Amino acid sequence: MHHPSSCPAMRDFKRLLSCLLAALCAACAQTMPQPSGPLAFNAATVGSPGSRATAELYRPEGAGPFPAVVALHGCDGVSPHYRTWARRLASWGYVVLLVDSFGPRNLRTVCNHGRDVPPELRAQDALAAAAYLRARPDVVGSRIGVIGFSHGGWTVLKSVLASDAGVEVTHPFAAAVAFYPGCEMPRSVLLTDTLILIGDADDWTPAARCERWRDIVMKHGHTVEMIVYRGAVHGFDTSRPPHAFAGHIVGQDPAAAEDAIARTQTFFRQRLMAP
């Protein structure tokens, strides 16, 4: 008895299929928006006043002006996962600024010590990034959103409150999306409609804490949509199967990821795109 993989014709077919898939992936990579290269913007929180933060800028094709999104990486720093998200957002029609909060501070990761760069400080980076975007002629300054993942999602939830970032927010984000964020007791008023996407099996940033956060901040008028995915763990939109990392279980849940991507697209479109 022959196994399917032992048949020469089948092996040839699989090689052909692999080549076709590789070609398709290469074509997709070429058509997706690519970063314009590293850039710097003013962000005094990095060090002394006048310090410069770094970021990667992704743009849709055309002159614009476009709505924009500030993107905030997780505790692992800027990685291919966040660049994939930046390209995805740009393909939806947004100028995207993927901020590097660790490089300028001479750090690579903070996964074992999350407060080495506290979310309050990163929220100030996010607000400085939004100020940079507002000054660009290809950006609609009143339509800037923010998205973050894990430590970056924690940062998002600091940046959408009136003063939890340690500064008064004078130009609130127009929309916010937080993937599996850390949720702490809020200390000030919510300024921005917010979408939280999290798994009920997340042992790093438990969903119950975010439910408490939502219940408190929604008393002040803005909307908080919270989607809890059954069985999903931390990092459910990443590409690796669930595995142990930094004392927790992290990894993909394709169904949750697909739904979360669609919800993110709709949430931003409804709040950032012109009617």
UniProtKB/TrEMBL annotation:
Annotated InterPro entries: AB_hydrolase_fold (IPR029058), Dienelactn_hydro (IPR002925), FrsA_esterase (IPR050261)
Residues annotated as signal peptide: 1-29
Gene Ontology molecular function, alphabetical: carboxylic ester hydrolase activity
Pfam families: DLH
EC annotation from Swiss-Prot or TrEMBL: 3.1.1.-
Domain Dienelactone hydrolase: 55-270
Keywords: Hydrolase, Signal
Name used for this protein in its record: Dienelactone hydrolase
